[in-house]
Amino acid sequence: MKSSVLVALAATSLLAFAADDRNPGVTPPVLRPLEPADSSVFQLPGPAPVTPRIRKVPIAKPVPKAMPVKAKLVLAPLPPLPYVPPAAPPVNEPALPASPLTVASVPATLPAAISASAVEPPKPAMPPEAAQEMAFYCQKHIGQWTEADARKLLGTPLRSRAALDDRKKANGRIYAFRDPTSRYRELELDFDSKGGNLRTVFVYPHRMTWQDVRRRWHGDVSAADAPQGRKFYSYANRRLDVLVDAQGKVISLGLY
Predict the structure, then answer these.
(1) Non-local CB neighbours of 238 within 8 Å, separated by 6+ positions
(2) Tens digit of each residue's pLDDT (9 = 90 or more) over 26-64
(3) Are the C-beta atoms of 120 and 100 separated by less than 8 Å?
(4) What are the residue ranges of CATH 3.10.450 in the chain?
(5) Taking the mean position of all CA atoms in its chain, how far away is CA 93?
(6) 117 touches 96 (CB < 8 A)
(7) pTM surpassing 0.70?
(8) What distance in Å separates the CA atoms of residue 37 and residue 17, rounded to the nearest whole number?
């Protein structure tokens, strides 16, 4: 009985297999699942996918180095030299007398043919006593000379300054002259402001010491201190004052 059932099932399977061969792609009913699937997949909604944007950064191009430009030095041609006529032959002029005026004191606008003797009036001949000792010669004219008289013998003053009294008030004018005998570096003549007469003579020797003064002029002397370590000596038997520096060199002689 059992064997007949098995045979019947086998025959049914063969028929189904045969039917599958005739209809390929169709699953036979025996092999079809009769129960639903145990699980299934559900896809939940989510945010839309974001595509990242790629920012392109421009790459800086290297700056080309400037090529040095060689400057060409162009020299303009020099203009031709102007024509200079030959110099005129020299004019023979008489020799000028000795004068404290220099060539620089003659105005530059004067023609070259005019000599210095035409600009300055000739001075009188120097007295022998003045040529021997100019300082004491001027001392003898204290109270007599005016500035005009001094100019006749000594020429134009080099400069001038105010003469001050003990209260630092101006009471005269001091004019500086060049010594025409060259015995002294300079002469200064002090003229009174009231009458305009000569009252004091100052001379500045080139080289003289206090020992030289004592060997030349004898007599009693009073001494007094002066600023900057100087000494002021005054003779009692003659009108002579001597200003000496700290090293014993004579700065000036004062005659009054």
Answers:
(1) 217, 219
(2) 666 666 666 665 566 656 676 777 677 777 767 766 666
(3) no
(4) 126-205
(5) 48
(6) yes
(7) no
(8) 25
Rounded to 5 degrees, φ, ψ at 7 are: -70, -40
Per-residue pLDDT tens over the stretch 66-96:
666 565 555 556 566 566 566 555 555 444 4
Which CATH code fits 126-205?
3.10.450
Contacts 24+ apart (CB under 8 A), 176-182: 177/100, 177/150, 178/100, 178/154, 179/134, 179/203, 180/98, 180/100, 180/126, 180/134, 180/153, 180/154, 180/155, 181/126, 181/130, 181/131, 181/134
> Position 78: which residue type?
L
Are 137 and 129 a contacting pair, CB within 8 Å? yes
